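# nightly structure sweep
# worker-07 picked up a monomer target from the shared queue
# config: single-sequence mode, recycle default, output format = structure tokens
# input follows
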Amino acid sequence: MKVKKAVFPVAGLGTRFLPATKSSPKEMLPLIDKPLVQYVVEEAVASGIEQILFVTGRGKHNIEDHFDISVELEAHLYDKGKDRELSRVREIAEMVDIFYVRQRQALGLGHAILCARDFVGNEPFAVLLGDDIVDSERPCLGQLLSVFEQQGGSVLALEKVPMENISSYGCVAADRINDRTFRVTDMVEKPARNEAPSDMAIIGRYVLTPRIFELLQNQEPGKGGAIQLTDAILKLSKEEHVYGCLFEGMRHDCGDKLGFLKATVDMALKRKEFSTEFEAYLRQRLS
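# output follows
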């Protein structure tokens, strides 16, 4: 079955970026000239997604405004003859069908996914986290969807990370199918280095079967009273095969200040209009 729907959990408070996120969502922080979340929406669309659900919370209206039609702005650009800018603004509102639902309580990522149950129905679906930006020739989600089509089960995006950092991630034990595809046999959330089953971390891209909703519905709250998605996926793996895709591409953790800075530099160096001058500036500053 073709995966047509994607869920974007964006209800978090973004406290690591305070005070910038006091009045503006973390997902709307600009990376060069686009908000973080737009990069991820574009990835989903490039992967064949036709409908997106944002699971929002209080103070997230900026996201809705960004992906909506802006009559006043479009009229202003038209009057000024700024055709290129007008085209770019219109493309944002037209790229995909977008829906919204409110997560009324901050009860964890698993609970945010559960809020999407009516939207998804009895279909497989994708989940994308807006602070993981993946720069790749082939969309990261598209790579997961290929594994889903080949194997017929839920798929997690995997990235090899240094073992000294593994305690910051959920990681997997897995049996190798080929160089980039694995069958997941166990998952551990933020293990100590000496307890980690591998160096393969789960990052913010998933393709899930609808069975996950029943498991989340019956999931007991874990640490901090949160309903953990990882716990439900581990249960799912006992009923159905769950796969991992060691994706190709560069991931930027833009939920972290240093990661955000690195992403800004890397993405800026790829922009033809100012990459040469920007690189020269960096070399001068570092000399």
